[in-house]
Design a protein that fits this description.
alpha/beta; 9-stranded mixed β-sheet; 9 strands
Amino acid sequence: MSKVIFVMVDALGYETAWARCGYLGHLAEVGKGAVYRVRGELPAQSRPMYETLMTGLPAGVHGICTNDYTGASKSESLFSLARRHKKTTAAAAYKWIAELYNGGGAFNPVTGRYQLGNQAGLIDNGIFYSVDDYPDSHLYADGDYLRRAFRPDFLLIHPMNVDDQGHRHGRDSREYQHAAEVSLCWVSQYLDEWRRDGYDVIVTADHGMDGLGIHYGDTPSQREVPLFIFSGQVEPGNFTDHTVSQLHIAPLACALLGIEAGKGMLRPAGEIRGLVP
C-alpha cells in the first residue's frame, strides 16, 4: 500500500482554507483530489488536537485536555502503529510533537532540533522547531529533506505560521489570510513530486481561529477545518456539503498506509468515500 505524507497546517480554519486553496482546490475540481469539511473535536487547542489527529481519540479518552500537558502520549498513535507494522516514520514539526512522541519531557532547543536515527522515541527521524514564527518555507524544506533522505512510510509535516499570525492579528486579518495562502502554496509546489514519489497526501489542521485571535471553544471558526486528500484509494470530488468528524482522520491515514487501525479508532475509516473498509 501507499506511503503517506500528513500535512497539519496549524490553525487553518475551513473557510480560510477554501478561500485560499489555489491548486489544491483546482485538483478537487478536476477529479484529482478530494476535499471535505471537518468538524474538529474540543477543546479547539493545539496539543489536545495533535493527539486526537495522531490517535483518532477524543480528549476525554486520550487524556490531553490543555496545551499545558508536557508528558508523552499514552495512547496508540500513527507513529506507534507504523512502528508495530515495521514501517518507518519521520516528522518536521513543532516541539510539542517531539514531546508527545519522542520521549516526553521539556524540549531542549539546543539538543532537540535534530533527532535523526532515533532509537528511543516513536519518530525515527525528526527535525523540530521551537519558535512559532519559524518560516513555513523552511519547515516544508525540512519535511522534504526527510522524505528524500530517509524515504519514510509516514511523514508528518507541521507548519506554524498560520497559527502565529492568527494569534497576532485574528482570523479576518490580511496577515492570517496571507499566511494561509503562502502555506498552501508551499504544499502545491511540493505536491506533484510527492505524488510521483508514491505518497498519498493528507492536508488538514488541528483547529481554526476566531476573529479575536483565539481558539478553544465551540464556534465554527474555531472548530471547522479542511481535509484535502490526494490518493488513488479515495474517491475524488468536493464533499463539503456536510461535515465529517475529525476522529475519522487517523483511521483514514491507517487505511492509506495499509495498516490496522488502532484500538478505539472509528472503524471503518468512516465517511471518506472510496476507502475499502
